[in-house]
Design goal:
3-stranded mixed β-sheet; 16 helices; 15% strand; globular
Amino acid sequence: MKDFLFGAATAATQIEGGFNQDGKSLSVWDDYSARGLIFNKQTCYFACDSYNRLEEDLALIKELGLTSYRFSLSWTRIQPTGRGAVNQKGIDYYNKLIDGLLAIGVKPFVTLFHWDLPLELEKIGGFSNRSIVERFAEYGQIAAEHFGDRVEYFSVFNEAAALIDFLYLRPVGGGKQPVSEQKAFEAVHNLLLCNAAATNSLRKHSALPVKVGMVNVTEVKMPKEENNSAHIAAAQKLMFEDFGWMLGNTAFWDPVVFGKYNEGLILKHGFDLSFVQRGDMEKIACKPDFLGLNIYLGKKVETDENGNAIESTPPTDACYGDMGWDTNGSASCMYWGPKLMQERYGLPVYVTETGISLPEWKPLEGRIYDTMRTDYIRRYFAELMRAKRNGVDIRGYFVWTLLDNFEWSSGYSRRFGLVYVDHETGERTPKQSFYDYRDLIKLYQ
């Protein structure tokens, strides 16, 4: 498929390590680690040691046959305090990564911010403090001026919903008191202003005509029976009108695309919008170039005897796994998620993350035969291709993740990688899924 991006995704905090090397300062995740808030008091300090193993990882990317690699910049490696002076050694590292990717024919797909808020900004309120908007404008300009001559694709945020959740609604490890939904919503608003400010900086200061969007986790609902119009309508309703969770699909995309908050969301949670300043919504509607959808699974829906949309009970033999729902029965989420999101927002789609965590270890002899991961990729990718054949404008697919990594508050207890990583030594071992994904990519080139 010409111009279709076959990729794998990572994030700086999850793979780089080198948390205090070459001028990098502390992020909130370094702080959570120091305070013992991560699973089993693990830390992100070493992660996969990718900061010191860049050439090794580039070789894996080349062997895998990717056409794109999605990674994030570490703000505290580039601009240690989130303001002011730039750390040249951080710039050098990402230049080496970007140039290394281009040298092997792989397009960089860069995330500006994947959750690693500089601790110095968190100390003054983080996204609760509107001054962070100016910081994001500056950070976006730095990224544009240093990388925008070679990087074509940028996303400002990864999973803003999760970011607001762990910073304010359900703080990591119970490390601080949660805030009210109203205060969290005010942080959402500031985050959306940050997204717009950085988007404008990237477009204005990049040498290339860059494509800029946002990446969000997507709560997919799909009809239990695909030939049942009532079930399809139920899926549409629950995708966009179920406001039980304040950070659902419309919370970020509606304001970014339409320039307004979903009225149902505001009414359901009783939000007071008096804090919104004149002109804010016009700024927030920054016309993203694409939808970045992180899709791991979905929930089937139907109608009850009164015609109300309800979630279906998973079958008895459903596989729940680490993701907490019917994983093996969810493949059609890759059809319905992009389809329904594009119908609502009218933008091209990149599936920027999809993957599965499995309980794995390296055997004494032989390869790691992660057959369920290969099966997951094949099932879900087939459904994505069904959507593409049916007219959904899908332009890329990124497996989460290249390497077994530091999985945030879960520490190293989950393995999503195509490559097994020994987190004591950093040794990399490709799994069977690595080679199977490579073969899948070859089929479409």
